[in-house]
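[agent] plan:
  1. take the single chain provided in the ticket
  2. run structure prediction with default settings
  3. attach structure tokens to the ticket
  4. add a short note for the reviewer (M.T.)
[agent] executing step 1
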Amino acid sequence: MKELELESAFRFPVALLVSLARLKYLALSSVDLDTDEGIYSKSPCEVAFEGLYLRGVSSGVIKILTKTLSSTDAPLTLRKLALTPTFEEGFAEAVAELIIACRTSRASLGYLPYISVSPA
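[agent] step 2 finished; step 3 output follows
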């Protein structure tokens, strides 16, 4: 598998999220982590991201992805990072850390506005 789009996943396993770093394209929408799993402390793993698209994900998801990107010894292949903000506390700080972790790659950043659809 080279790409995955995942929407509305709650209590998503941390180990599974880390294993998704082997994909070329990952799109997560409304995904939150299983907080009962504890802190991520895995050794470096293969990271193959070329496109990372995050919409409405928790700051915990962003922190795990940041740690995963930072732990690899290989050069980053990330070319496109697109984010949609949330109002969750700590989101801006988590995004800043993710951007810093991506600084060695030639990634473009898309910071997309939050779109709320209200009933007519």
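[agent] step 4 note for reviewer: Residues 79 and 106 are 6 Å apart (CA to CA).
[agent] ticket updated
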